[in-house]
Design a protein that fits this description.
EC 1.17.7.3, eight-stranded parallel sheet, 17 strands, alpha/beta, 14 helices, elongated, 421 residues, five-stranded mixed sheet
Length: 421
């Protein structure tokens, strides 16, 4: 398999993890709780962490919210959750950092959008204060430029200059250049103010797939800062998943991106953790990282009118993901385990033999038995109403035997772990 060559970047410390080309691409997420609710926010950060998020952003938009950040950090520490917290600041960030120094200290990174810090001299002063606080407290900063909140004075200046040319560029090309210019000039200002270069991460988010690819490809050529990838306002459900995956996959294939977030609008009642699962599965299916054993399953056809294999595939996938909170510590390397749940005899035995563990369920009209293959060899044949439980027991035995303390596969195919302090 051809290995994706990562773009070389600075290495940036965020709390107890590292970001950059020498380290695995991190999964980031964001809470949607009211930060004033310290208990609820801490619990959601813990849920996101348990799902696999390695950095979590929280909204810091008011004095009440800023006053709770240190408590949230303490609650997480008490739960044994050391996930770095990123403060999302807009409009009044400099005042909140000034008035709530415990907030400034508790956060691992500040997210600053130069487009809404302020205008003119006042905006420059606000930006400067936030950067100075980051330098004072040895914090990383993400300078995050967004299409919807681009600095309008910069955009107007660049549009006017473009119109004065004999052959003006298209307006959308100027706007994309304005995004990149805003990020790069803001990063230079931050360094001029005393923030070390290895404390800066950049992002230039837009909501259109092709625009995002073009902007990041250009930005990546013009700096060596780590880049945070995300399609902003991606949308809900399959639209948001497909759009984010389409954009980020192209960039990741080019070696661009050091942290990613899938900015999904949650379906009513859906868990916030879905964005984490999608981000992990994107990185894993591209071969960039392993997070949890994945299930290979056929889509079903006229041979598989029974829903048994669908239910078993679903149950096994859920089971494997739920176990990872414990398994990733107890069974190193288990994240590379491959399981197949197939629905009939056409591809079932072949796919099952190729997987570490596979089960080939009977299709319509076939003998009601399900052979189970382990490391390519037929191990046992299951039948009856307890196949799911019996198959899970076989998976558990395989994991203990192969990834336990003396397991033969304990260190095989293992992706470099996240470096922590």
């Amino acid at each position: 398999m051809n290995e994706i060559k990562r773009r070389q970047t600075q290495q940036v410390q965020i709390g107890n993890v590292w970001v950059g080309s020498d380290h695995p691409i991190l999964v980031q997420s964001m809470t949607n709780t009211d930060t004033v609710d310290a208990e609820g926010t801490a619990l959601q950060v813990k849920q996101l962490t348990d799902a696999g998020s390695e950095v979590v952003r929280i909204t810091v938009n008011s004095p009440e919210a800023a006053s709770k950040v240190a408590e949230i950090r303490q609650r997480l520490d008490d739960m044994g959750c050391n996930t770095p917290l990123v403060g999302d600041f807009h409009f009044n960030g400099e005042r909140l950092l000034r008035d709530y120094q415990d907030c400034a200290k508790a956060l691992a990174k500040y997210r600053i959008n130069p487009g809404n810090v302020g205008k003119g001299v006042k905006g420059d002063e606000k930006f400067a204060y936030m950067i100075e606080q980051a330098a004072l407290h040895d914090k990383a900063v993400r300078i995050g430029v967004n299409w919807g909140s681009l600095d309008q004075s910069l955009a107007k200046k660049m549009m006017d200059a473009n119109l004065a040319l004999a052959h003006p560029a298209p307006a959308d090309a100027v706007m994309k250049e304005a995004l990149i210019t805003s990020a790069l000039t803001s990063a230079q200002k931050a360094m001029d103010l005393g923030l070390p270069k290895n404390k800066i991460i950049l992002s230039c988010k837009v909501s259109n797939v092709q625009d995002l690819i073009e902007v990041y490809a250009d930005l990546a050529k013009r700096c060596d800062f780590p880049l945070h990838l995300g399609l902003t306002e991606a949308g809900m459900g399959s639209k948001g998943i497909v759009a984010s995956s389409a954009a980020l996959a192209v960039l990741l294939q080019q070696g661009i991106g050091d942290t990613i977030r899938i900015s999904l609008t949650p379906e009513p009642g859906a868990p916030r953790t879905q964005e984490v699962v999608v981000a992990q599965e994107l990185l894993q299916t591209m071969g960039l990282r392993n997070f949890t054993p994945l299930v290979t399953a056929c889509p079903g056809c006229g041979r598989t009118t029974s829903t048994v294999f669908q239910e078993l595939a679903r149950d096994i996938q859920h089971y494997l993901r739920e176990q990872m909170a414990v398994w990733r510590l107890k069974y190193p390397g288990v994240e590379s385990l491959n399981v197949a749940v197939m629905g009939c005899v056409v591809n079932g035995p072949g796919e099952s033999k190729l997987a570490d563990i596979g089960i080939s369920l009977p299709g319509t009209g076939e003998t009601p038995i399900a052979p189970v293959y382990v490391d390519g060899e037929r191990k046992v044949t299951l039948k009856g109403d307890n196949m799911a439980q019996e198959f899970i027991a076989i998976v558990e035995e395989y994991v203990e035997t192969n990834y336990g303390a003396n397991g033969a596969k304990r260190s095989q195919n293992r992706v470099i772990p996240i470096q922590t302090l």
